[in-house]
Design goal:
- This protein has 257 residues and is of the alpha+beta class.
- It is built from 6 helices and 12 strands.
- The strands form 2 sheets. It has a 6-stranded antiparallel β-sheet with strand order 1-4-5-6-7-10. A 6-stranded antiparallel β-sheet has the order 2-3-12-11-8-9.
- The radius of gyration is 17 Å and the shape is globular.
Length: 257
Amino acid sequence: MGTEGDPRSVMLLGPDHTDLGAVATRPLGPHVAIALSRGKYLKGYPSLDPNEDGVLASVSGKSVCLAVADGHNGFDAAGTALQAIVAALPALHSAALPDTKPLLSRTLVDARARLRLSRDHAGQQRRDSGCALIIALIGDRRLTLCSLGDAGVVILRGRRVRNLVKPSPYMGWDRDLAAVQITRLRLKVADVVILGTDGLFTFLGDPKADALRHATAADDAGKVAERLIDRAFAGGAGDNIAVAVVMSSGPDDAARR
């Protein structure tokens, strides 16, 4: 994966964005974007790093890869997991759709192996760093995703809001990956896919569906991501927030740009 200036891939890492109330947004054209914030207010719980979230998006041909990660006991596990995804991007983008499930499984196995190695060099507080993690692949109007921890994925289809994942154990160096659920579904032309860490969904307010509908009324993915974070700020966002968005006439069109 390239740097933040790469027009085909973008990544935002928590340690680079630690100012309260600030929002960093990185678009990949009008249909794919990511955003990251430390949050508007200080966390209400102990943490090792001010911003332990990270997010990436990558576009290649007709393929879009998104990921959000929320670290626990430091940013270490989130950063390591994102590094594993970056290393897997060439294979993930080039895979035929029936092969995406085993590739995602191998990416998680690599992430766990990297966590085990990094644990040997970590300080005592960070030895058991873990993270919530979501990886999503979109192409040919199909979505394949895997989820660990309490991050979320929603699809907006017209007025309908659909939650795609449920909370599960976090990603960690000793995580049993055999039972990780990998979900596939077909997308429709006007669907909007949103990945977010719990700092987003916790503070959107109720009803969350109204906040999501308001955000997706914007005309490009970067504005959608910013609206979502603004709404979380208005809800008292005392946590880190990472968001990834794919929208418009479909992921295939997003990937062509």
